[in-house]
Amino acid sequence: MADFADTRVSLAGHGTLVALAATASASGACLADVAGIRVTVRVPPHLTIAAQQNILILRRGSAYWAIAVLPAAPAVPPPPPPPDDSPPVDRGDPAPAPKPVVTTGTLVCPPVATSTWRDGKWRTDIGSSTSTDTYQGRYSGSGFGRNSGFAFYGSKPRSLAGATVTKATVKLRRLTSGDYARRTPTLRLVTQPTRPGSFPTVNETTAGPALGAQGQVSPWETTFELPTSWGQSMVNGSRGGLCITVASDDPYIRLAGRDSWSAAWTLTLYWRRS
To answer: Shortest CA distance to 117 belongs to which of 107, 109, 129?
Structure first.
């Protein structure tokens, strides 16, 4: 049956029309708007209509029938942009790779022990066996054997493992003992990082600084530069200490240990890491 709108405007003869459902279908009918006119549309049992859906309707006599629900327009992706025919922009050579970050620093390593070996044992007659002065050679006319003085550095140098040593120095002070003329100790690298019970293993050798006796002949104190490879071997862990020792009795030399001078045998390692 027609609704009130049918008395105002007739849609007869328009054939199939598209309408917008104003209500959902219920009891076989719904309201729909078409061409500005609200009409009652009959809905077949097989069709379900929701409000605001576009529907296809057909008029037969005075009645409007829904024959299909129109699907929403498919989403069409936008067309690809046209090819860029402009010539490429010359941006020059690529930027160089950033330089590696290089870190540098110094590590100060006081000895964990300074000791002197003589006649098959560590000397205790001149003080503590782990902080005594360090001697080299034999005092003229002495009935005792030759002395060898040692400084051990523990594990601290190895805290720089992986770094490159650029410089290594050691602080030495010669005390009064023997003659007063300037004498040169023979420095050796030691394998052990701490004092063993037996005579340590000595390795590489180099001549130390020429020092006079303290208070008699200058200089008697110095910061001596060691071979760089010596510092590297301590960082790498293959060496752990320094010593003064000679195969003969002379020169007889006494260098300060920890008890005599707090800075005695202090090792400083200059390093870089990238």
So the answer is: 129
Provide the CATH topology of domain 103-273.
Jelly Rolls (2.60.120)
Q: Are 95 and 137 in contact (CB under 8 A)?
A: no
Indicate whether 101 pLDDT > 80. Answer: yes
| Close Cβ partners of 205 (under 8 Å, ≥ 6 residues apart) | 186, 187, 188, 189
Interacting residues of 178 by C-beta distance below 8 A, sequence separation 6+: 137, 139, 140, 213, 251, 252, 253, 254
Amino acid letter, residue 122 = W
Cis amide bond preceding 100, omega within 30: no
Terminal alpha carbon distance of the chain = 92
Residue of 152, 119, 174 whose CA lies nearest to 234: 152
SS3 32: strand
Whose tokens are 């195969």? That residue is 247
Q: Which CATH architecture has domain 4-69?
A: Beta Barrel (2.40)
Q: What is the pLDDT of residues 144-198, one digit of tens each?
A: 999 999 999 999 999 999 999 999 999 999 999 889 999 999 999 999 999 999 9
Predicted local distance difference test score (pLDDT) of residue 111? 98
Mean pLDDT value across residues 92-109: 89
Question: For the chain, what are the domain ranges?
Answer: 4-69, 103-273
**pLDDT tens across 127-151, in order?**
999 999 999 999 988 999 999 999 9
The pair of structure tokens assigned to 117 is 């070996």
The answer, yes or no, to whether the previous bond of 251 is cis (omega within 30 of 0) is yes
The residue type at 268: T
**pTM score:** 0.66
